[in-house]
Write a structure and sequence with these properties.
226 residues; alpha/beta; Rossmann fold; seven-stranded parallel β-sheet; 10 helices
Length: 226
């Protein structure tokens, strides 16, 4: 069996290497404005995290701990945590291109469609159900962020090169400042992971690490737009 490209044990050094590889593009430095920040957790569902699933994302299991740290620190400071689920009623009703592009579909209401138990949303936390890659497409995410007066969006979850990237691009188009921790987003291969991080750094987001986000909360860094 081929070894996974990243695990929970080596996500630290691997993500440090990824940041080195994209450094020439990762030049738009920002400090997180905590009182205008929200965390968006993308598609951390059993459908993508079960090794037996046809859509298993090995990079997703490696980032569970990082996502947990982000969720805890945002909750601990009273900042919004928003979750997404990629679900479908049926291939015929809302599958579209995705119904034939991928093997299998995540059907709403099944155990596979649930967000994994260790990251489960609190009762009061918002869950965005989406039928396409971007969490903004035909959902109420934009109005939710606007009502919360969010300016800075930290995004974690899977897959880096599909739903995370699509969502971050759409967030940037809405003039949100985007932060993507390299050790809290995952994909199915290292080449796809690095490619996504490089593209996001080039045009849409600051790529950093979980410790940069949690450190900003602990230090209460004042907002400064560079």
């Amino acid at each position: 069996m081929q070894k996974p490209h990243v695990t929970a044990d080596n996500i630290g050094p691997r993500s440090a290497r990824w940041l080195e590889e994209i450094a020439e593009y990762n030049v738009h430095k920002m400090d997180l404005e905590i009182n205008k920040a929200a965390l968006l957790v993308i598609d951390m569902q059993n459908f993508f995290l079960d090794p037996q699933s046809p859509t298993y994302t090995e990079g997703g299991t490696a980032i569970i701990g990082g996502c947990r740290k982000l969720i805890d620190i945002f909750r601990g400071h009273g900042r919004p945590v928003i979750f997404t689920r990629h679900v479908h009623k049926s291939p015929e009703l809302d599958g579209g291109n995705l119904a034939w592009w991928w093997q299998g579909m995540c059907i709403d209401g099944t155990p596979e469609s649930k967000i994994m138990a260790s990251l489960a949303p609190l009762k009061a936390e918002k869950i965005i159900d989406k039928h396409r890659y971007s969490a903004f497409y035909n959902t109420d995410l934009e109005i939710t962020l606007r009502c919360l007066a969010i300016r800075d969006l930290v995004t974690c979850g899977i897959m880096s090169n599909i739903c995370v990237e699509s969502t971050v691009r759409d967030a940037f188009f809405r003039d949100l400042r985007c932060f993507v921790p390299a050790d809290a987003v995952g994909s199915v291969s290292e080449s796809l992971q690095i490619g996504a991080l490089r593209g996001l750094a080039f045009g849409f987001a600051l790529i950093n690490r979980v410790e940069d986000i949690t450190g900003a909360f602990r230090n209460q860094i004042p907002f400064r737009d560079k």
